[in-house]
Inverse folding.
């Protein structure tokens, strides 16, 4: 906590870990490899770490190597383009870096080389995904099989020894392994990541390909090789997914399937960068960088040529503008298509049929995103314009469907994550003055240098930026009171909501929430997760009304997949 804080030593980059991974990956020259081997032989802790890293590569010895099943291929692989592009755009294989917009939407664009599309096998995806679940990514070469690491005794593990409760986890191991947790999966489902791509699949419930025989035994071995805590996290993810409403669960499973297919088709270097990312946040950044690069490579030749002639900053701004225009046009078309009957007849969709609920939705949008306040506004220019236009169409033309779709999309975008605000007995960190001096000095440099202090004064943007900055600083692992994180610290409407939620959840779920008390953002994040799982809305942090009703009304149904050979 901040009280009595003493400054910890600066964290130096872990060069030992980097060098060890390079050694196991066969990337060191002979002299450097001998130096690492000598250190491994002399240092028991380093040897233990090396053996733990190597175990992930040993999975290659018994993982199955089947071709993708017909069901998986027809449902996903054959329908998912390696690069999202205009139908008229030819395949592009640039030989020089292509400017990619900075993830924040501002600043100097990132120069990222664009590799040609490449395919692999389902087994390769499985191997890599199991590897990342151990936290080591895509490892292993002959250098890892030296005399320092004698082969382990064969595992006598078959599907017959698998507890019945673990069968579903093992059957979906290739989908679950790269998913750090449910929050990560929800972020993958954002429309600007893989959310839109689920429309390429069938609307039928997701049924995984059923492994059997030696293939199932190998999956069991792979699962048993994982550390116990990782096995528990995969079980927890499976339970959380299946506690969701059916529609949301199937959507997220499709997102995981599309994500796996996308990973499969990446070049090795890009796939390794994503899978070896040290944290879920870093992995999402790597995914966004790669998809942005693919998006630029898919532009028509004239637009790509125009980008090449621009200065770096102008290129970044142009890319952001073009992507925003594409998103806006797509959203307008989708909303008009989905709500054609409402627009044609003049009837209103839920929740705008109820004046009280309509007012609550408007109040939520204004207080959560502050689109009319230049200092507190949380929306990017394109989303702010879209919200303003939708509100005007509702107030002047009575076309509230547009606003409902806009609020739904914004609320599902992880960029605009919202946590409950503090009440009289709580606090919210929205400015540098709210931080203890030692943390203030570090975060001032990090936040100003990274984001130009654009999040200052905004809740929860500033606190989330501080939390992310801490994870990469000497304060990693320490806890600070950045926002309300226990009963008694929230606004009255949230305090009144907590007893209602307790009546809906199981004793184990409520105990899990209580265990996170005092930790921000873990406590409010779990509060929101439980509310969604039981179809409730946390006041001030989620659009009013049952989440399932928002999903049913404003989530576009998947587009049907044409049968092979059909026009």
């Amino acid at each position: 906590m901040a009280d009595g804080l003493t400054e910890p030593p600066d964290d130096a980059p872990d060069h030992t870990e980097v060098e060890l991974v390079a050694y196991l990956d066969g990337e060191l020259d002979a002299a450097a490899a001998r130096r690492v081997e000598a250190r491994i032989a002399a240092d028991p802790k380093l040897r233990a770490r090396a053996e733990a890293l190597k175990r992930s590569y040993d999975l290659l010895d018994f993982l199955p190597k089947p071709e993708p099943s017909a069901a998986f291929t027809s449902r996903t692989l054959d329908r998912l383009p390696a690069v999202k592009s205009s139908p008229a755009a030819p395949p592009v294989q640039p030989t020089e870096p292509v400017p990619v917009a900075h993830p924040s939407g501002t600043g100097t664009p990132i120069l990222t080389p664009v590799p040609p599309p490449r395919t692999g096998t389902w087994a390769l995806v499985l191997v890599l995904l199991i590897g990342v679940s151990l936290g080591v990514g895509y490892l292993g070469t002959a250098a890892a099989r030296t005399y320092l690491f004698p082969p382990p005794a064969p595992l006598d593990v078959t599907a017959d020894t698998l507890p019945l409760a673990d069968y579903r986890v093992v059957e979906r191991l290739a989908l679950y392994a790269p998913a750090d947790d449910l929050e990560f999966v929800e972020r993958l489902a954002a429309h600007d990541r893989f959310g839109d791509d689920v429309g390429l699949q069938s609307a039928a419930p997701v049924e995984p390909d059923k492994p059997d025989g030696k293939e199932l035994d190998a999956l069991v071995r792979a699962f048993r090789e994982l550390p116990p805590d990782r096995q528990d996290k995969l079980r927890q993810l499976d339970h959380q997914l299946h506690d969701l409403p059916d529609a949301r669960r199937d959507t997220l499973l499709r997102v995981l399937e599309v994500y796996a297919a996308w990973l499969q088709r990446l070049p090795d270097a890009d796939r390794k960068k994503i899978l070896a990312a040290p944290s879920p946040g870093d992995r999402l950044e790597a995914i966004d960088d790669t998809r942005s690069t693919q998006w630029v490579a898919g532009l028509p030749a004239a637009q790509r040529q125009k980008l090449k002639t621009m200065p770096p900053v102008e290129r970044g701004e142009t890319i952001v503008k073009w992507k925003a225009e594409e998103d806006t046009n797509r959203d307008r078309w989708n909303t008009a298509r989905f709500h054609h009957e409402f627009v044609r007849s003049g009837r209103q969709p839920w929740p705008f049929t109820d004046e009280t609920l309509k007012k609550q939705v408007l109040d939520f949008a204004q207080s959560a995103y502050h689109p009319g306040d230049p200092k507190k506004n949380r929306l990017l220019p394109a989303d702010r314009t879209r919200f303003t236009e939708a509100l005007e169409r509702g107030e002047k033309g009575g076309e509230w469907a547009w606003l409902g779709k806009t609020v739904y999309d914004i609320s599902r975008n992880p960029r605009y994550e919202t946590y409950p605000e503090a009440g009289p007995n709580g606090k919210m960190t929205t400015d540098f003055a709210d931080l203890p001096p030692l943390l203030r000095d570090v975060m001032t440099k990090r936040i100003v240098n990274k984001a130009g202090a654009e999040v200052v004064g905004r809740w929860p943007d500033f606190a989330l930026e501080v939390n992310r900055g801490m994870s990469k600083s000497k304060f990693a692992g320490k806890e600070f009171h950045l926002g309300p994180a226990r009963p008694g610290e929230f606004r009255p409407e949230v305090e009144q909501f907590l007893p209602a939620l307790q009546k809906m959840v199981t004793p184990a779920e409520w105990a899990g929430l209580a265990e996170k008390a005092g930790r921000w953002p873990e406590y409010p994040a779990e509060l929101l997760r439980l509310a969604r799982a039981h179809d409730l809305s946390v006041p001030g942090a989620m659009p009013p009304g049952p989440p399932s009703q928002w999903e049913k009304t404003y989530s576009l149904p998947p587009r049907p997949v044409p049968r092979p050979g059909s026009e």
In short: The chain has three domains: 71-297, 312-418, 432-541. The longest strand covers residues 98-100.
